[in-house]
Every structure is written in C-alpha cells, then in structure tokens.
Amino acid sequence: MVAKLPEEEHPKQAFGWAARDESGVLSPFNFSRRATGEKDVCFKVLYCGMCHSDLHMVKNEWGTSTYPLVPGHEIVGVVTEVGSKVEKFKVGDKVGVGCIVGSCHSCHNCTNNLENYCAETILTYGAKYYDGTITYGGYSDIMVADEHFIVRIPDTLPLDSTAPLLCAGITVYSPLKYYGLDKPGMHVGVVGLGGLGHMAVKFAKGMGVKVTVISTSPSKKQEAVEHLGADSFFSRDQDQMKATMGTMDGIIDTVSATHPLVPLIGLLKTNGKLILVGAPEKPLELAAFPLLMGRKMVGGSGIGGMEETQEMINFAAKHNITADIEVIPIEYVNTAMERMLKADVRYRFVIDISNTIKSTH
C-alpha cells in the first residue's frame, strides 16, 4: 500500500509550517485535516502560542518526534463548523485547544476529569490519532478536534494573550489548586520567571496569595515586583535565602535546567511543598534529611484535565489574567525559536496565524 501524501490523507485542505528533520527548521507545509465528525469542532486558527516544548519537539530532543512535524499546542480561533452531535459549541464561538486532543474516556483518570494523566492521551501534535494518522498542531490555518478537548474562550479575554494559558496557564494553575496553595494569605515562591513563572505569579496573586519570585537574574526584580505584581523578589543569594528560610507554604518550580533543590526545600515551612513543573533533562539531586526535618514534600504536576482547563480560563477572565506576549508573523518563527533558546522573550511568543499564514494552494 502506498502511503498517502499529507495533503491527501484527509478531505480538508490545510496549510501550516512544519519541521522536516532534527535541524528543527520550519517551512511552509501543505497537509490536510479530517472531515468534521459528528462530535468534532472545526475552527479557523487565529493565534498560536510558542511553547518551550515546541522547541524540544522540532529538534527531537525528547526522542519521540516524527516528521513532518507541525508544532503548536496553545491554539485559539473561531468555530467555522460543528458536527451534528456537538452540544457545547456553535459557529462563531471563540475556542481553544491545548496540549491534548484525545484520551480513552474510560480509565480511572478520565472518569475523574484527569484526561492529562490517561495512559492513552493523544497529544495535539506529533502523536498517532485513532484513525492512524499523525496529529498536527496549531502552526496552521485550521484545526479539527473532538468537542471534549475544546475550551471556550470568554469574550472578555483577548485571543492573542489568552493562547498561552492553554499550556503555560494550566500548568501552573493546576498545582496551585491541587496542592492547596491557593488560600488567601499563604506565601508561595515561584522559581524562574519565564513563560511558566510569570503565569504562576499572576494566578497566585489572583488567588490572593503572597508571592516571592526566586530567580538567577537580579535584573528581573523590577519586572517581577512592579509589572507582574509579586510581593518580593530575590536572586539565589545566600543571605537572602537565609533570611527567607522556613517562610513559604509552597514553591512552584518552573525551571527546566538542572539546579539545586535543597536550598529551595530550606525555604519551606513545616509541611511545605516544593512542586516541579519544569522538566530538567538530567536527574535532580534530592537529599532525604531536608524532607524529614519538617515533613516536607517534593511533588510534580503536568498540565490539567479539560474541566480544570476550562475552570482556569474562566478564572483568568474573572481576574483579567493574560500572558505577556510578543506577537510575531509566521515567517519569524525560526528566529523566534532561536530567541526562545536564549530565553530572549518576555514572556511568550504568539504567532499571528490568520494575518500571516498564506496558503500556497
């Protein structure tokens, strides 16, 4: 059997930008999307955020990439077509798709609204869908997804700066809620002030929590306190660390580079929680005694289920929380990848898909 070309696999013509190999260089790509099934929602993509995962995936740094690869899992747009059995959405609705587009719907995780932890989760791009075809992400002009994995975007939220909430936003909102770090008056540390970190500050402040930013860049102090609303800031300075020992109820650690955990554990109160949401490639060193002396814990968290993702978006609308973004045309995407590698972005690139993606059909 001859393999079908990407543009012939499905009936809906689509156009995006794809990486063809491990160089990670993206270029224009004709492909196709499936016909809108009875439970599917088809939408015109207006904006797509650029997540650090996109960078890892285009270069196959996690060893799971298949090419051609169309990245993008912070996707927002407007509904153009709905299937006959779709109940929650109609043409013209503002919607979004995050990191996942499928799960088994029957396991313990799925029945508890934790589709993100389902063993059969289907990722928005670079994964195999039920029909055997590869999923393509949001660096493209149209998207088709099952309504279960579609999020409604309230009219009060601007689409461009809301896109990053679908990955970065839920990644920090979920642990704040689950680990009980959302109670007004609590003291929470946020390690790293990038795409995830700046969202953690905004959501924690929205919950009424006192926030301290911990960063290796002293230059970010003004930004953290004056612009993002953090209550305090310190770079990992020994004296400042000592002065803050034992004062935090929890810490959201967003750093993806290898870094020492013991000094952070020292900042926690008794029963404090250090929650990792960044994913360093090499194992981190963890001594037992700092955990024993104070009944402390180190935990993790990865995105969130669909119900919680919608709850997060609604919370963002209520508290006027959006990402700080730099909007770019699709032609700039390779340069943006290089800048993202150097952390040269405040704090998220968002591609203006509808105005800059031009089909070659």
Question: What's the gist of this structure?
Answer:
The protein is α/β, with parallel strands linked by helices. 24% of the residues lie in helices and 26% in strands.
Alpha-carbon Rg, integer? 21 Å
Instruction: State the major sheet.
Output: 7 strands, mixed
Here the CATH topology of the largest domain equals Quinone Oxidoreductase, Chain A, domain 1
Structural class: alpha/beta
Per CATH, the architecture of the largest domain is: Alpha-Beta Complex
> How many β strands by DSSP?
17
Supply the CATH class of the largest domain.
Answer: Alpha Beta
**N/C terminus separation:** 26 Å
Describe this structure in words.
- There is one protein chain.
- The chain has 361 residues and is α/β, with parallel strands linked by helices.
- The chain has two domains: 12-166 and 322-352, Quinone Oxidoreductase, Chain A, domain 1; 168-300, NAD(P)-binding Rossmann-like Domain (Rossmann fold).
- It has helices at 52-58, 108-111, 159-162, 168-178, 195-206, 221-227, 238-243, 262-266, 289-292, 306-319, 333-341, 353-356, and strands at 12-19, 26-33, 40-50, 75-82, 94-97, 100-102, 122-123, 142-146, 151-152, 187-191, 210-215, 232-235, 248-253, 268-276, 297-300, 325-328, 348-352.
- The strands form four sheets. Strands 3, 4, 5, 8, 9, 16 and 17 form a seven-stranded mixed beta sheet that branches. A six-stranded parallel beta sheet has the order 12-11-10-13-14-15.
- The longest helix is centred in the last third of the chain and has 14 residues, at 306-319.
- The radius of gyration is 21 Å and the shape is globular.
- The protein starts with 11 loop residues before the first strand and ends in a 5-residue tail after the last helix.
- The mean pLDDT is 94.
- Residues 24-351 form the Enoyl reductase (ER) domain.
- Keywords: Metal-binding, NAD, Oxidoreductase, Zinc.
- Oxidizes mannitol to mannose. Provides the initial step by which translocated mannitol is committed to central metabolism and, by regulating mannitol pool size, is important in regulating salt tolerance at the cellular level.
